[in-house]
């Protein structure tokens, strides 16, 4: 193994800091939660999670916190993804494969448009402010 220079160490430190910043909640205004319970994982939630994080990275969207959770109780609609974004209702998308996951990032997060055909749960219109 070659010796690391001071410049190499600085680059490595910055790379690791950037990776940690992506996972931290600071300065994040939008949250995406992927259901990773047994039923979600069996239905393909790992691929969905990877597609979402890859698309966020590709589009360089900084203000999004991606989290994992257990079962959301919507086993019939797995994989499920909940999106909470400012100025939009919180929604849970169902049957989210990798391609729909990427579409959530491009349409919902970047384009501020709901994917109506994929929504399986959202607050009633009379309680959305």
Short description:
The chain is built from 4 helices and 5 strands, in the order αβααβββαβ. It is of the alpha+beta class and 129 residues long.
Secondary structure layout:
Elements (H helix, E strand, L loop, with lengths): L5 H18 L6 E6 L2 H6 L1 H15 L4 E6 L11 E4 L6 E3 L4 H13 L8 E3 L8
Parallel strand pairs: 1-2
Antiparallel strand pairs: 1-3, 3-4, 4-5
Describe this structure in words.
The chain has about 130 residues and is an alpha+beta fold. It has one domain (about 25-125): Glutaredoxin. Helix content is about 40%, strand content about 15%. The chain contains four helices and five strands. The chain has helices at about 5-25, 40-45, 45-60, 100-110; strands at about 30-35, 65-70, 80-85, 90-95, 120. The protein has a five-stranded mixed beta sheet with strand order 2-1-3-4-5, with helices on one face. β3 (about 80-85) and β4 form a beta hairpin. The longest helix is centred in the first third of the chain and has 18 residues, at about 5-25. The mean pLDDT is about 90.
